Amino acid sequence: MRTVFFLLALFSIMVSCGRAPLVPAKLAPSLQPGDLIFQDLDCGDLCTAIEKVTVRKGLPPISHVAVVEKIGPGGVVLIEALGSVRRIGFDAFVKRSRSGSGRAKILVGRLKEAFRPGIPFFLNELRARLGKPYDRDFLPDNGAYYCSELVSDAMAALGTDLFPRHPMHFGKPGTWARRVWEQEFTRRNRSLPEGIPGTNPADMAASPYIKIVYSFQ
User: Fold this and answer.
1) Residue 142 belongs to what H/E stretch?
2) How much is the pTM?
3) Among 104, 205, 113, 211, which Cα is nearest to 151's?
4) Considering its fold, how many domains does the chain have in total?
């Protein structure tokens, strides 16, 4: 029996050693307040449907975004809209999904220099929204927020519309992604917000106002 336990433990060590670390050791210390952390969230069909209808050339699939609030002795803290508008530690954030090579499926976007002076005010706007509910209806100006809506609205409150709203589209009729969205909204007795102004993480990652400074790929 001891031999079996030893072999199982050895196998576990070999597997873990053969996988890449979630993120490079130097990444967390290099993060800055205001950085946007994009993520392939792997939350099931809805996340996959988001990625399929918002794919951008040159970028991996993205279904979530959070913002670095602070870096301190306790680690890096982010603000995100997931379940509600809340804080989450960077370590917990990156554990949500791995690529085949073992990397956390994240990208880091940094505002270009001309817009960095506004970051303290941007963070204050994000903090003012802590505790607000998650916007499952994907509707603007309803007191609730989905992930990219939180980022867009906080920035727009400064009078700097870096991440503007655009009419939302949920895939062509008859496609798998469209059916996923229709089923979700029908289940909740809501209308699909087709054409309603909104945002998405992939548009933000492709914005000319930010630079991608890290990608897991």
Assistant:
1) none
2) 0.89
3) 205
4) 1
